[in-house]
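Notes from hallway chat w/ T.B., transcribed later so I don't forget. T.B. wanted the structure written out for a chain they're using in a teaching module, and asked if we could keep both sequence and structure tokens in one place. Agreed to drop them here.
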Amino acid sequence: MPAYGIHPMYVERASPVDLDVLREYLAQPDTVAVGEIGLDFFVEGNNQPQQEFYFAEQLKLAREFNLPVLLHIRRAQDTVLKHLRQFRVCGGIAHAFNGSQQQAESFIELNFKLGFGGAMTYTRATRLRKLAATLPLENIVLETDAPDIPPSFLQPGQPNKPEYLPRIAQTLAELRGISLQEVAQVTTANVMNVLPRLAAK
């Protein structure tokens, strides 16, 4: 099931006419979300004004079509939240969440689930693992971001794969002291809740 959007790393290649093309794609009945969209201030020379323009315009489209949003966020949590408060959408997923407890609560208040994946498997990721262990499970979804964000159990240079999701789920189960089955059931239900068109298929 497709999701469509202009990724922040590619806004330099975009033009306003692409938003009209995107609108046509979003109007298709099998579209489940707008994304991956958002802000990326990690890379030097990130064209912040251009990123924010396309992010805001795509949030407007998400609102127009009542579609959830798949968020890309790197070093831009508060700015993303600012735009989400301005252009309220029906919800979505904050992909590869790596923010603070307060930021997590802010996304949850805006009806966003938080994506946890390979980064959570590293014991040194203490803040992230604490969030994974203590946030309400109903607000967490699991992901791999394959081939990126490889988990700790891979050798350096090995690509991430979707097939590793059960092992990532096992990490979450261990952090929370619950069964793998419960993690699988609840996080799957969370995805279906936040992406209702996916659940309808």
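Follow-up for T.B.: Helices lie at 16-26, 48-65, 77-86, 101-109, 126-134, 165-176, 180-194, 196-199. Might be a good example for the class.
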